[in-house]
Design brief:
Chain lengths: ~625, ~450, ~110, ~230
C-alpha cells in the first residue's frame, strides 16, 4: 500500500465555493470556472447546430421537400457545419483543456489566467455574432468552406457572407490566444517530476492540438483577410475578371482545414485514452507509441490538405502525392485503435457509460476512418467527392469520433467538474439511443452518396432511388434528438442533484484524482512530486490496484481555504471581458462600411481605443497581490 | 447495472432493424448508381473501388471482431482480481504498424496506376465537347459541328468524348454518375475529362448533376445525357447544325426599338445575386454569334431521343419537380397560342437580350441557353422541368419562382421578381402573350 | 525534449547574452551582406546569370540566420526556444514550397537553379 | 528522475507569473515561451502571405508590374516598373540598424546594476537612449513605407488595380502594421523607463519586446529579397 498515494488529508470534504454571483463569473480567471463556462456554452451551441441539422433532415425526408426555401437551406447547412465545428466541438474540447490540463500536470492554474478568460469571452461573443443572423434569415450561405468566387461580393452581394468572414476571424483570435496559453502551461507549469513522458495522455494530445491550432489558424486568418479586403475594400485576390485563381482560396482554406479536423479529433482520442485504462484496470498499452503516433498524426496532418481538391484538376502528380501522404495517416491512427483494444485485452472491464462511449468511439471512428481511406484514392474519390458519401465519412469521424469521445470524457470527468455523478441510468438511455440512431442516420448516407446523391442539395427528384435512405437518415435524426435531449437533461439534472462523488470515484490513476471533487480554487494544497506515470496506482502487483475513495469516508472533514494555506491566487479581473467586447465592437463596425462609412469608421476608431485601452489596463494591473 | 438492461435490449433490436432495412434497400432500382461499367472510365474507377471495399471491409471486420470479443471476454468478474499490468509489447506494436502499411501498399499501387491512366491525354480523334457552366444551367458546344445546345448532351456510343470544362461565373462540377467521376469547372481555367460510352450500350438516357455548391439553385443544375448509336448521333448533329425550321424565320429584322431594351436586360443580369460580370459575358458572346452556319431550309428531319422511350425505359430522366403554388397561370390560354404572333412578341421582348436563335436577327447573346432548337428538347430550366407548353409558360411567366435565384427575370406583368424585388411593369408579358411565345418556342424544331 | 523538464528551476532564465563585442560585428556583417545584395541587383552580369536567384536566397538566408541566432540570442538560449522556432519555421517553409509547386511556380525557380 | 528543488518564486513584480506555487518546470519565464510560440505562429502567417504574393506574381493580365514597364493597350499610357530599389534599400538598412539599437537597449537594461565609469559605458548603458533610437528608426522605416505607398499610388498602383497591387500592399501592409505595433510597444517601455526606470529585473519584458522586434526585422529580410530584389 505504501506506494499508493492514498487520498491525501486535505481532500476530505466539500465546502460550497465561496462567491457564486454573476459578477464572480464575469470576472473569473479560475481555469475550472472558465472550463465550466466553455462546457455549458458549447453544449448550447451543439443543440443549436443539431436543431439546424434536424431542419435539414426534415427538408430531405421526402423528394422535393418544401419545409424551407432553398436560400434558407443554404444558410442552415452553412451554419450547421460552422456551428458544430467552431462553436460546439472545438469549445467542448477547450472545456476539457481548461479544466483538466492544470489538474493533470499538477498546476494551480494556466500560465496566463486572464488571457484564458479573454479567449472564452471572445469565443462567446464571436459565437453570438455569427449565430444571430440566422434569426433574420441573413445567415452565411456559402458552405462551411465558403469557396471563392461564390463567397465574393460579385456573387454574394448580400450581408450574409460578411458575418461569416468576420465571425471566423473573431473566433480565430480566441483559439490562437488559447493555444499560446496552453503550450506555455504544458511546457512550463508541470509539477516537479512530471517529465514529458509522464504526462497524462490527454494532456499530450492537447499539447499536439495546441500546436496544430497555432500553425493552422494563421493560414485561414490570411485567407479570410483576403476575402474581407475583397468584399470591403475592392481588392482582387478572388476577382475572376482580374485574373485571380479561385484555387488560391481552396488551398489556403484546406491548409488550415485538414489540420483542423485533427484539432477536432485528437482531444477526443486523449479522453478515450484516459477512460479505457481506468475502467480496464490496466495502464494504457504502449504509452510512448500513443504519444508518438499523436505527434505524427499532427505533423502529417499538414501534408495532406489537397485531398479535399482531387476534383479540381491538379494533375496526376499532385493527386498521387497527396493521395499517398493521406493514406500514410491511416498507420499512426491504426496503431491507436489497436493499442486501445490491447489496453482492454486481459483487463477487468467495467461498463460505465463513459466506458461505453469510449468503446463506441473505437468502433465508430474506425468506420469513418475506413471511408476516409476510400476518399484518399483520387479516382475513387472522384465518384465520392461532394456526395453524401463524404457526408457519411465525416459524420462518422466527427459524431462517432469527436462527439463520442467528448461524451465519454463528460461522463468520466463530470464528478470532478461538479462533485456529482451523472445518472448512469439516464446515461445508458442516452448512450444506446445515440449509438443506434447515429448509425441509422449516417450509415444510409454511404448508400445515397454512392447511388448518386450530391451534397448541399435542398431538393432531389422522386424516382432516383434515394427516398428510403433519406427517410432512414431523417428517422435517425429524430431519435438522435431524443437521445441527445436525454443526455442534456442528465447534465442539467445531475449538476445540482446528482449523486455525491468522492475525490477518486472511478479509481483513476492521475493527479486530478488526488484532489477533492470539485477541486478547491487552488487545486493542490501543495504542489505534488510526481514519481511515475500513474501516481495513484500500485502496479507492483498486490491485492489492490488503487484506493477508490467513497463519499462516505470523505464526509465530515473540511478543506482549508487558500488564505489558510497562505496560497496567493490571481485576482479576478473584468478587463479580459471588456477588451474582448471592444474587439467584437470594432469588427461590428465593418458591417456598416458600405451602408454608412462615417458611422463605421466612428465605431471602429472608438472601439479600437476601447479595447487597446482595456488591454493596457489589464497588462498593467498585476495578476495577484504581492506578498 | 439493472438500468442498462432495457435500453441495451432495445438497441440490439433497433440495430438489427436498421441493418435489415439497409440490406433491403440494396435490392432496389438505382438509376444514378456509380457502380455500373458503362464506360472504360467508370470501369477503372469501380475496379479500384472494389479493391478499396475489399480491404476496407477486411479491416472493419478484424477491428470490430477483435473489439467485440475483447469487451465480452474481459468483462469485470465479481472476483475483481487486479489484472496483469502490461505496459506494451514492441513486437505486437510493430506488427500492427506494418500490416496496415502493407495493406496500404496494395491500395496505393492500383490507385496511382489508375490516376495516370484516367488522366492521360484523350485520343486525338475524340469528339470534342465544350462544357460551360452557368448559374444554373449547362451550355454544351460541339466545336467540330459548330453548334451550341443546353442541358441535353448527346454522345455517340463507342467514341471517346473529350470534355473541355469551363465556367463563366462560380465553380461548378460536371458529374454523370453512371459514366464516371466528376471534374470541377474552375474560373480562369480549363479542365479536361474524357471517357468512352461502351460500344455495346443500347442508346439510352442518363442523369447528370452539378456537384459543386454554386448558389441557391445548385440542386437544380441538372442535365440529361443521351448515349446513342453513331447513326443516330450524326442524324442529331445534322439537324442541330441547321437553323430552326420555322416559317419566315430569317424574314423581317427585329425592330430596332428592341435593342435598347436589350441592354437593360443585360445590365440587370450583371447586378444582383449570382450574376455574370459583363466582361465575361462579352467573352462568350463572340463564338455564339458566328458558330451557327446559316443553312437555308433544306430541312433535315428532326431527330431527338424519342420521348416515349424516356418515359417508358428511363422514367428517372423525366423530371417530376412540382410547380410552386406561388405563381398562377391561366393554362386554358395555351390552346390559343399562335406561333407567328409569338415570334413578333418575342422579337420585341427582352428575351433576345439573353437568348440566341440561329437564323434569326436576334441571334446574339449567350447569357441564356441557345433556343435555336428549343422545341426539340425534353427538359427546361437546367433539367428541372419537362419541356412542355404548361411548364414553359410558367417558366416564362416567372423563372425565379420556379428556380430560386434564377438570373432569368420574372416576365409576367404585375408579378414581383423574388430575386430583384421589383414589380414587372414595362415589358411585362400577359398570360396571352406568354401563350403565344410558348407556341413560338415549341415550334422551334 | 524530455530532458528539458529535468532542469532544476533557477531564479530566472537569463542565459548569458552576447555583448557589444559580438553585436557590432553582427551589425557590420549584416550591413555588408545587404550592400552586396543591393549591388548585385545593379550588376547585369550577375543579375542575369542563373546564380542570381540562388545567391540572393542564400545571402538573405544567412542574414536571417545571423539575426535569429545572435540578436534573438537563440544560440545562447534554452534549447527549447530553438525547437519552438525551428519547428514551425520548418512547417511554414514546407507549406510555402508545396504551394509554389502546386501553382507550378517552382519549376521556373528550379530551372534557374539547374 | 524527479525535480529535486523546492518550488522557487520567480522574479517579482511581473504581471504574469504563474499563479499559485510559482513553480515552473524549466525555470523559464512563461512570457518568453509564449512570445516564441507566437513568433512560430507568425511564421505561418507570413508564409501564407508571401506564398500568395509569389503565386500571383506575373499573373495579372494588366499592369503596372513590379519590375517591368507596361503600356496600357487601350489608353497607350506607359507605366514604369513600380519597385523603387534605392528607397527600399535605404529603409532596409534603417530597419537592420534598428535591430542593432534594440539589442543595445536590451543589454543596457540587463547591465543596469553594473556601475559605469567611462562616457562610452554610460552611453552604451543608457536604455532610454537606445530605446529612443530603435523607436525613431522604426518610425523612419514606416515613413519610408508611407512614401513608397503614396508614390506607388501616384504611379497608378493601388490595392484595387491588379493582383500584384492587392498582394503587394497586403503583404507589406501587414508587415508595416507589425512594425507599428512594435513602435507602440517600445514607447510603452520608454514610458515605464521614464516613470520608474527599467531595472535588471525588467530584462524579460524588454527581451520579449526585442524578440518581437527582431522577428519583424527578419521577416523584412525575406520580403526585401523575395519581393524587391528577385525579378
Ligand atoms: C474528426 C475529423 C476527421 C478525421 C479524424 C478525418 C480522418 C480522415 N479523413 Fe476526413 N474529413 C473530415 C473530417 C475528418 N477526417 C471532414 C469534416 C471532411 C469533409 C470536409 C467537407 O468537405 O466539408 C473530410 C473529408 C475527407 C476527404 C475529402 C473527401 C472529399 O471531399 O472528396 C478525404 C480524402 O482523402 C478524407 C480522408 C481522411 C482520412 C484518410 C482520414 C484518416 O485520418 C483516417 C484514419 C483512420 C483509419 C484508417 C481507421 C483506423 C485505422 C486502422 C484500423 C488501421 C488499418 C486501416 C487501413 C489499413 C485502411 N477526409
Ligand atoms: C462535429 C460536427 C458535426 C456534427 C456533430 C454533426 C451532426 C449532425 N449532422 Fe452535420 N455536418 C457537419 C458537421 C457536423 N454535423 C459539417 C461540417 C457539415 C458540412 C456543412 C457544409 O456542407 O457546409 C455537415 C453537413 C450535414 C449534412 C449535409 C447537408 C447538405 O450537404 O445538404 C447533413 C444532412 O443530413 C447533416 C446532418 C447532421 C445530423 C442529423 C447531425 C446530428 O448528429 C445532430 C444530432 C444533434 C441534435 C439533433 C441536437 C440535439 C437536439 C436537442 C437536444 C434538442 C432537443 C429538443 C427537442 C427534442 C425538440 N450534417
Ligand atoms: Cu453548379 Cu452547383
Ligand atoms: Cu482532410
Amino acid at each position: 500500500m505504501a506506494t499508493i498515494a492514498a487520498a491525501p488529508p486535505y481532500t476530505e470534504q466539500k465546502v460550497t465555493p465561496a462567491d457564486n454571483g454573476v459578477w464572480s463569473w464575469l470576472t473569473t480567471v479560475d481555469h475550472k470556472r472558465i472550463g465550466a463556462l466553455y462546457l455549458v456554452t458549447a453544449l448550447v451551441f451543439f443543440v443549436f447546430g443539431g436543431l439546424e441539422a434536424a431542419v435539414l433532415r426534415a427538408q430531405l425526408a421526402t423528394p422535393n421537400g418544401r419545409v424551407v426555401s432553398s436560400e434558407m437551406y443554404s444558410q442552415l447547412f452553412t451554419m450547421h457545419g460552422t456551428t458544430m465545428i467552431f462553436l460546439a466541438v472545438m469549445p467542448l474540447s477547450a472545456a476539457f483543456f481548461n479544466f483538466l490540463i492544470p489538474l493533470q500536470i499538477g498546476a494551480r492554474d494556466v500560465a496566463f489566467p486572464r488571457l484564458n478568460a479573454f479567449s472564452y469571452w471572445v469565443y462567446l461573443l464571436g459565437g453570438l455574432f455569427i449565430t444571430f443572423p440566422i434569426f433574420f434569415a441573413v445567415a452565411p450561405d456559402g458552405g462551411w468552406f465558403g469557396y471563392a468566387p461564390l463567397s465574393t461580393k460579385a456573387y454574394s452581394p448580400q450581408i450574409n457572407m460578411d458575418f461569416w468572414v468576420i465571425g471566423l476571424q473573431i473566433l480565430g483570435i480566441s483559439s490562437l490566444a488559447a493555444a499560446f496559453n496552453f503550450i506555455t502551461t504544458i511546457i512550463n507549469m508541470r509539477a516537479p517530476g512530471m517529465t514529458l513522458m509522464r504526462m497524462p495522455i490527454f494532456t499530450w494530445m492537447s499539447f499536439v492540438v495546441q500546436f496544430l491550432v497555432a500553425l493552422a489558424f494563421p493560414v485561414i486568418t490570411v485567407a479570410l483577410v483576403f476575402l474581407l479586403l475583397d468584399r470591403f475594400f475592392g481588392t482582387n485576390f478572388y476577382t475572376i475578371a482580374k485574373g485571380a485563381d479561385p484555387l488560391l482560396w481552396q488551398h489556403l482554406f484546406w491548409v488550415f482545414g485538414h489540420p483542423e479536423v485533427y484539432i477536432l479529433i485528437l482531444p477526443a482520442f486523449g479522453l478515450v485514452s484516459e477512460v479505457l485504462p481506468t475502467f480496464s484496470r490496466k495502464p494504457l498499452f504502449g504509452y510512448p507509441v500513443m504519444v508518438y503516433s499523436g505527434i505524427l498524426i499532427g505533423f502529417l496532418g499538414f501534408g495532406v490538405w489537397a485531398h479535399h481538391m482531387f476534383s479540381v484538376g491538379m494533375g496526376p502528380i499532385a493527386d498521387a502525392v497527396f493521395s499517398l501522404t493521406t493514406m500514410l495517416i491511416a498507420i499512426p491512427t491504426g496503431v491507436k485503435i489497436f493499442n486501445w483494444i490491447a489496453t482492454m485485452w486481459g483487463g477487468q472491464i467495467q461498463f460505465t457509460v463513459a466506458m461505453k462511449y469510449a468503446v463506441a468511439l473505437v468502433a465508430m471512428f474506425t468506420i469513418g476512418g475506413i471511408s476516409g481511406v476510400m476518399h484518399s484514392s483520387p479516382p475513387a474519390d472522384l465518384q465520392q467527392t461532394d456526395t453524401y458519401f463524404v457526408v457519411a465519412h465525416f459524420h462518422y469521424v466527427l459524431f462517432g469520433g469527436s462527439i463520442f469521445g467528448l461524451f465519454a470524457g463528460l461522463y468520466y470527468y463530470f464528478p470532478k467538474f461538479t462533485g456529482r455523478f451523472l445518472s448512469e441510468k439516464l446515461g445508458n438511455w442516452h448512450f444506446w439511443i445515440t449509438l443506434v440512431s447515429m448509425n441509422l442516420t449516417f450509415f444510409p448516407m454511404h448508400f445515397s452518396g454512392l447511388l448518386g446523391m450530391p451534397r448541399r442539395i435542398y431538393q432531389y427528384d422522386a424516382g432516383q432511388g434515394l427516398e428510403l435512405f433519406n427517410l432512414m437518415s431523417t428517422a435517425g435524426t429524430v431519435l438522435l434528438m431524443i437521445g441527445t435531449a436525454i443526455g442534456l437533461w442528465n447534465v442539467y439534472r445531475s449538476w445540482n442533484h446528482g449523486e455525491i462523488a468522492s475525490s477518486n470515484p472511478w479509481g483513476g490513476a492521475t493527479l486530478e484524482w488526488t484532489i477533492p471533487s470539485p477541486p478547491p480554487d487552488y487545486n493542490f494544497a501543495e504542489i505534488p512530486m510526481v514519481k511515475s506515470r500513474y501516481p495513484l496506482w500500485n502496479m507492483k502487483g498486490g491485492d489492490k490496484l488503487v484506493h477508490e475513495t467513497t463519499a462516505e469516508e470523505e464526509r465530515g472533514q473540511r478543506i482549508p481555504t487558500a488564505k489558510e494555506l497562505g496560497i496567493v491566487m490571481p485576482n479576478p479581473s473584468i478587463w479580459p471581458l471588456v477588451c474582448a467586447a471592444g474587439i467584437i465592437a470594432m469588427f461590428c463596425g465593418l458591417l456598416f462600411l458600405d451602408s454608412n462609412p462615417l458611422l463605421a469608421i466612428a465605431i471602429m476608431t472608438i472601439s479600437t481605443f476601447w479595447w487597446v485601452g482595456s488591454l493596457y489596463k489589464w497588462l498593467l494591473t498585476p495578476l495577484e497581490d504581492h506578498h | 447495472m439493472v438500468g442498462t438492461f432495457r435500453p441495451r435490449r432495445l438497441a440490439a433490436f433497433a440495430l438489427l432493424g436498421a441493418l435489415t432495412l439497409g440490406l433491403a434497400a440494396c435490392g432496389g432500382e438505382y438509376p444514378n448508381s456509380t457502380f455500373n461499367h458503362n464506360s472504360e472510365y467508370n470501369s477503372a474507377i469501380d475496379d479500384l473501388f472494389d479493391k478499396l471495399l475489399f480491404w476496407g471491409t477486411l479491416v472493419f471486420i478484424v477491428v470490430e471482431v477483435a473489439l467485440v470479443y475483447t469487451i465480452f471476454r474481459f468483462r469485470r468478474r465479481p472476483d475483481g482480481r487486479v489484472p496483469k499490468q502490461v505496459h506494451g509489447n514492441t513486437a505486437l506494436e510493430i506488427a500492427w504498424t506494418a500490416i496496415p502499411a502493407v495493406i496500404l501498399i496494395f491500395i496505393a499501387i492500383p490507385t496511382v496506376r489508375t490516376i495516370f491512366k484516367t488522366q492521360a491525354k484523350a485520343a486525338p480523334d475524340a469528339l470534342q465537347v465544350e462544357v460551360i457552366g452557368h448559374q444554373w444551367w449547362w451550355e454544351f458546344k460541339y466545336p467540330q459541328y459548330g453548334f451550341s445546345t443546353a442541358n441535353e448532351l448527346y454522345l455517340p456510343n463507342g467514341r471517346t468524348v473529350n470534355f473541355q470544362l469551363k465556367t463563366i461565373d462560380v465553380l461548378h462540377s460536371f458529374w454523370i454518375p453512371q459514366m464516371g467521376g466528376k471534374r470541377d469547372l474552375i474560373s480562369n481555367k480549363t479542365n479536361y475529362l474524357w471517357f468512352t460510352p461502351n460500344k455495346d450500350l443500347p442508346s439510352s438516357a442518363w442523369n447528370g448533376f452539378c456537384a459543386e455548391f454554386c448558389g441557391p439553385s445548385h440542386a437544380n443544375m441538372r442535365f440529361r445525357v443521351f448515349t446513342v448509336t453513331s447513326a443516330e448521333f450524326s442524324q442529331w448533329t445534322a439537324h442541330q447544325q441547321q437553323v430552326a425550321i420555322f416559317p419566315a424565320a430569317a424574314a423581317e429584322a427585329a425592330p430596332s426599338a428592341a435593342v435598347p431594351m436589350v441592354m437593360p436586360a443585360v445590365r440587370q443580369v450583371s447586378s444582383g445575386g449570382g450574376s455574370v460580370p459583363i466582361v465575361q459575358v462579352a467573352a462568350v458572346l463572340a463564338p455564339a454569334i458566328d458558330s451557327l452556319p446559316v443553312t437555308t431550309k433544306a430541312a433535315i428531319p428532326v431527330w431527338t431521343f424519342p420521348k416515349e422511350r424516356m418515359v417508358k425505359e428511363f422514367p428517372h430522366t423525366v423530371p417530376t419537380t412540382p410547380l410552386p403554388n406561388t405563381v398562377s397561370y391561366n393554362e386554358s390560354l395555351l390552346a390559343e397560342g399562335d406561333a407567328e404572333r409569338g415570334r413578333q412578341i418575342y422579337s420585341r421582348s427582352s428575351c433576345i437580350g439573353c437568348h440566341a436563335i440561329g437564323g434569326t436577327p436576334f441571334n446574339m447573346s449567350a447569357i441564356g441557353p441557345n433556343l435555336t432548337h428549343v422545341g426539340t428538347r425534353h427538359t427546361l430550366a437546367g433539367g428541372l422541368y419537362p419541356n412542355d407548353a404548361k411548364h414553359l409558360a410558367y417558366w416564362i411567366k416567372s423563372a425565379p419562382h420556379l428556380k430560386p435565384g434564377s438570373i432569368m427575370p420574372t416576365l409576367g406583368k404585375g408579378l414581383t421578381d423574388p430575386v430583384r424585388k421589383n414589380v414587372v411593369t414595362v415589358g411585362g408579358l400577359t398570360d396571352m402573350e406568354i401563350a403565344d411565345i410558348v407556341a413560338y418556342l415549341q415550334a422551334l424544331k | 525534449m524530455a530532458e528539458h523538464s529535468q532542469v532544476a528551476a533557477p531564479a530566472h532564465d537569463e542565459a548569458h547574452h552576447p555583448g557589444w563585442s559580438t553585436y557590432w560585428k553582427v551589425a557590420v556583417i549584416l550591413t555588408v551582406i545587404t550592400a552586396v545584395e543591393v549591388s548585385a541587383y545593379y550588376i547585369p552580369a550577375w543579375e542575369n546569370s542563373w546564380v542570381y536567384v540562388p545567391s540572393m536566397l542564400i545571402m538573405s538566408g544567412v542574414k536571417f540566420y545571423i539575426v535569429v541566432m545572435y540578436y534573438m540570442h537563440l544560440k545562447y538560449d534554452h534549447k527549447l526556444f530553438r525547437s519552438l522556432f525551428t519547428g514551425p519555421l520548418l512547417v511554414a517553409m514546407i507549406t510555402l514550397v508545396g504551394l509554389l509547386f502546386l501553382f507550378s511556380k517552382l519549376v521556373v525557380r528550379l530551372g534557374l537553379l539547374s | 528522475m524527479t525535480a529535486t528543488t523546492a518550488p522557487t518564486p520567480p522574479a517579482a513584480g511581473d504581471g504574469h507569473t504563474p499563479s499559485g506555487g510559482h513553480y515552473t518546470s524549466l525555470g523559464l519565464d512563461n512570457r518568453k515561451i509564449a512570445i516564441w510560440t507566437f513568433i512560430g505562429s507568425e511564421c505561418m502567417l507570413f508564409a501564407s502571405l508571401i506564398s500568395t504574393y509569389l503565386i500571383y506574381k506575373g499573373r495579372s493580365p494588366e499592369g503596372p508590374y513590379p519590375h517591368e514597364a507596361w503600356t496600357n493597350p487601350t489608353t497607350g499610357e506607359v507605366f514604369k516598373p513600380i519597385m523603387n530599389i534605392p528607397i527600399t534599400s535605404a529603409s532596409t538598412f534603417v530597419l537592420l540598424a534598428s535591430s542593432f539599437a534594440m539589442v543595445l537597449a536590451l543589454a543596457a537594461v540587463q547591465n543596469k546594476h553594473v556601475l559605469k565609469v567611462t562616457t562610452g559605458e554610460k552611453i552604451l548603458g543608457s536604455s532610454k537612449l537606445w530605446l529612443w533610437v530603435t523607436c525613431l528608426m522604426g518610425m523612419t522605416f514606416l515613413g519610408f513605407q508611407a512614401y513608397e505607398f503614396t508614390s506607388f499610388v501616384h504611379e497608378g498602383l493601388t490595392m484595387r488595380t491588379n493582383l500584384f497591387g492587392s498582394s503587394f500592399f497586403t503583404l507589406t501592409g501587414f508587415h508595416g502594421a507589425h512594425v507599428t505595433v512594435g513602435v507602440l510597444w517600445l514607447f510603452t517601455l520608454l514610458a515605464i523607463d521614464y516613470k520608474r526606470g527599467l531595472t535588471a529585473a525588467d530584462a524579460t519584458i524588454v527581451d520579449i519586446a526585442a524578440l518581437y522586434w527582431h522577428f519583424v526585422d527578419v521577416v523584412w529580410i525575406a520580403i526585401f529579397t523575395l519581393l524587391y530584389l528577385i525579378k
